């Protein structure tokens, strides 16, 4: 189990750190530009998503390129499609519920309830991450052999 936890931390922690910074910056910029807590909640959610999934897609493409190169195969558009499909399988259901309901709702209310914009945004992100990672990790584990094995194309 320790090995699995290390694998998940290597995969998700750098993306989480980038996402946290993007979430705070996106929410802060939107709040100061529009003076709307709703816009701040939505901007924070989507800025965090772009950073998070952009990093993971880049990481997956890099690993797939290495696997293809090791087997003397080209990295093609089809391979890129497999990378995107693997991310969709890994995160699809968790992301829909997270981005459209849980995360923006928490990011809207928690800064108000805590009396701290930055603290409320961070707390909202951490609480939303709990409901996000359980299905995401299960899907990741289920998709590894079928969608992430680029040496057997």
What is the rounded distance between the termini? 29 Å
Low-confidence stretches: none
Instruction: Provide the residue-averaged pLDDT.
Output: 91
Biggest beta sheet attributes: none
Question: What fraction strand?
Answer: under 5%
Give a count of the beta strands, DSSP E runs of length 2 or more.
0
Descriptive overview:
Keywords: Membrane, Transmembrane, Transmembrane helix. This is GtrA family protein. The chain crosses the membrane at residues 12-31, 117-138. The structure is a single chain. This protein is mostly helical and 153 residues long. The chain has one domain (2-152). It is 89% helix and 0% strand. It has helices at 2-34, 37-70, 77-114, 117-147. Helix 2 packs antiparallel against helix 3 (77-114). It starts with a helix and ends in a 6-residue tail after the last helix. The model has no long low-confidence stretch (mean pLDDT 91).
What would the keywords be for this entry?
elongated; 153 residues; mainly alpha; 4 helices
């Amino acid at each position: 189990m320790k090995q699995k936890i290390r694998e998940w931390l290597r995969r998700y922690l750098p993306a989480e750190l980038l996402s946290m910074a993007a979430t705070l910056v996106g929410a802060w910029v939107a709040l100061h530009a529009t003076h709307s807590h709703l816009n701040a909640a939505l901007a924070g959610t989507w800025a965090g998503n772009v950073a998070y999934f952009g990093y993971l897609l880049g990481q997956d493409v890099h690993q797939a390129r290495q696997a293809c190169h090791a087997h003397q195969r080209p990295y093609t558009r089809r391979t890129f499609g497999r990378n995107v499909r693997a991310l969709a399988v890994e995160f699809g259901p968790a992301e829909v519920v997270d981005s459209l309901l849980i995360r923006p709702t928490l990011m809207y209310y928690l800064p108000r309830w805590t009396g701290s914009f930055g603290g409320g945004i961070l707390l909202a992100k951490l609480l939303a991450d709990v409901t996000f990672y359980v299905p995401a990790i299960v899907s990741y584990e289920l998709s590894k052999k079928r969608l992430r094995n680029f040496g057997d194309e």
